[in-house]
Design a protein that fits this description.
23 strands, alpha+beta, 6-stranded mixed sheet, globular, 9 helices, 6-stranded antiparallel sheet
Length: 371
Amino acid sequence: MKINRLLLFIVLLTLAAAAISPAAYRPETVRVAIARGMEEVRVDGDGMLVTDDKGTALAVDVPGIVRRSGGGTLVMGGTTSRRFTFASPSLVRINGRGYRGVIELHPADKGILVVNELPLEEYLVGLINCEISSLWPIEAVKAQAVIARSYAIYQKDNRKNALYHLESSVMDQVYNGADIEDSRAARAVKETEGEVLVHAGSIIQAFYHSNCGGHTEAAVNVWGADIPYLQGVECTYCVNTPPARWELTLGLKKIESLLKNAGYQFGTIREIRGGRLNDSGRLQNLLLVTSRGDAKISAVNFRKAIGYAVLKSTSFTIRQRGDEVLFSGAGNGHGVGLCQWGAKQRAGDGFSYREILNYYYPGVRLERLKN
């Protein structure tokens, strides 16, 4: 899960104003954007009920293809509507992938937007094996269920007037529907049903990441907001796991091109050096020696420009060999909140999910949502 949008930065800065009380908030469903920008969408399912934007049941053939039409409308077969809604007693299949709940198709600025509305707890069961493996120690899986629930509720409240509450990618939480659900994921969700993390009476924005590389990061170093429960903590449990260490080699011309595409105009880059380290041991900034003079860029913005999947964290050292730069790093992700691989190892050593959560989110309480 990665967060880089200005909207979420603003949310962090206005955390107190966006407080959510577990006693007053009982979400029944969440709305997840599962696809966008597609020119056509294939829909299938048993016993399908299809309705238009007025709620009128339609006699259309399923399986069928929905395409974007002119004037902000969609067309399926010979039927045109500003929105199609699909419901099935089993699963609705979108481009072959199964989803619980209801599927809505909307015309977007580009192509088609597909939104899945479903019960929160069912969403969590589908999410588990997208974010981690349900085969991990069950206490780690339960910790994942709690933080994913907390994050979803926070985002739902923050985006209550939007067409959807959550992205289905690393921009929020990875969710690929019902096809990879299993009994262990369902058990973890059931055994933590309704449980959320609370700080100062409000449900927290429970950020998490894959691997911190030895020390989690403070939110202030990534998004500029000093959040009490998102402070960096030492995490030795993840350092020997498979994704902890990585190396990357990039040419100076490639780096220059990626920075230019991200809106930076530094001129010809001749050398890259690592700058100051923050309290968690991650790079705070980088120094670029260019044809236009020396320039600094924050490590967070540098990683964003290079690509989150390419430069896996901001915990790295730099060596330059001619026109190539070797990055040697640790960890994977922004580093804020719970370290998933650290949680796995802690659970394997006998820590409960409550102990795991209290460690990675200092000062929080575990509470159950009220009916």
